[in-house]
Amino acid sequence: MVDTVAQCLSTVTEQLDKVNVKYVISITTPTRNLSNLDENNLYVIRQQIDVDGVYHLIAGAKMVKAKE
After folding, report:
1. Which end of the chain is less crowded, N or C, counting CB atoms within 10 A of the terminal residue's CB?
2. pLDDT in the model for residue 34
3. pLDDT score at 14
């Protein structure tokens, strides 16, 4: 089992591809847009592994400081 939580999504997908593990990615977004998001910088915030060994990853964008 590979622990993927709090890691950059691109790094995680490379790791899982290297060991030939199947995965499904869902991207989550906030319901309200209270902060700026770096949508090119996704991180895994939740993982589940089903009975077939498929990783179900939920990823979200990293928040960035607002420019004043």
Report:
1. C
2. 67
3. 97
By C-alpha distance, which of 37, 17, 41 is closest to 29?
A: 37
The terminus-to-terminus CA distance of the chain in angstroms comes to: 43
For the chain, the farthest-separated pair of C-alpha atoms sits apart, in whole angstroms, at 48
Whole-angstrom Cα distance, residue 55 to residue 52? 9
Dihedral sign from CA coordinates of 30, 35, 39, 40: negative
> 42, exposed or middle or buried, with CB in 10 Å at 0-12, 13-18, 19+?
buried
By CB atoms closer than 10 A (0-12, 13-18, 19+), residue 59 is buried
Tell me which residue has tokens 């990823």. 59
